Amino acid sequence: MKKRLTVFLLFTFVLASAQLPKGFVYVKAIIPTLNVDLRYASKNNFIGKKISGYQDNQLILTKPAALALKRIEEELEDKNLCLKVYDGYRPQQAVNHFISWVHKPNDTINKQEYYPYIKKKNLFKKQYIATRSGHSRGSTVDLTIIDGRTGLVLDMGSPYDFFGDESGIYYKNISKHQKENRAILQTVMKKHGFRGYSKEWWHFTLNGEPFKNTYFNFEVK
Fold first, then answer.
1. Is the distance from CB of 42 to CB of 208 less than 8 angstroms?
2. For residue 190, what is the enclosing H or E element?
């Protein structure tokens, strides 16, 4: 039975990878048990609508990023912890959707939840939204950690995609426990070759990413 399952997963990996640009993989083919919740493939995000280019809850990354993520998941599992991934590869058309949304001043349905203290027009200036995203290069991930026994997300001091100072890696006005949780995430990601982004505790990019200067636009499906 185990041999049959291995063959099935290998076949799934080969088939899925063949449908993507060379160098990209479906991460579930490498980490079948990974918890994936692509917020932009649903209405559960700062815009409140499904984002252009996201057709399915399928996490896609470059192969080196996916393999590094596998090592991280394995290390965390030894501590009864697991990853939960909110975003990986992001097509340029999704970034364009963000840009278009920023220029619609009255479309603020989720302001209180995601950016209560920042004027929407200042999201570019504050560097929470850009005209190009490292996600489109395929080696950047947004993620957090969950308790492997309860399935609950660890308290990081601010929610995912919260646009405010509270989300900064070095924000001081959070509890000791929240700082410890952030340190666990930052430490394990750095150990396995990812660098963080100072404004967002959840955002990491693989060092030595294979497509450093290429921004892709194929759909997530």
1. no
2. helix 176-191
Helix (H, G, I), strand (E, B) or coil at 199: coil
Continuous H helices in 103-149 = 111-114
- Structural contact between residues 149 and 109, judged by C-beta atoms closer than 8 angstroms: no
Residues 72 and 83: beta-carbon distance below 8 Å? yes
Q: How many helices (H) and strands (E) does the chain have?
A: 5, 7
Please list the active-site residues: 200
**Structural contact between residues 220 and 60, judged by C-beta atoms closer than 8 angstroms:** yes
Nearest-10 Cα torsion for 92, 141, 220, 60: 130
Check if the beta carbon of residue 194 is closer than 8 Å to that of residue 205: yes
- Pairing assessment for the beta strands 81-87 and 35-36 based on DSSP bridges: parallel
Which residue is it, tokens 């060092």? 207
**What's the token pair of residue 90?**
């992001």
> CB burial class (10 A; 0-12, 13-18, 19+) of residue 50?
middle
pTM: 0.91
What is the rounded CA–CA span in Å between residue 30 and residue 63? 9
Query: In the predicted model, is pLDDT for residue 202 greater than 60?
Result: yes
End-to-end CA distance of the chain: 29
Cα–Cα distance for residue pair 81/73, rounded to 1 Å: 8
Q: Which residue has the tokens 């970034």?
A: 95
pLDDT 10s digits, 25-56: 999 999 999 999 999 999 999 999 999 999 99
How many angstroms separate the Cα of 88 from the Cα of each of 110, 133, 139? 22, 11, 7
Establish how many alpha carbons lie within 13 A of residue 139's alpha carbon, considering only the half-sphere containing its beta carbon.
22
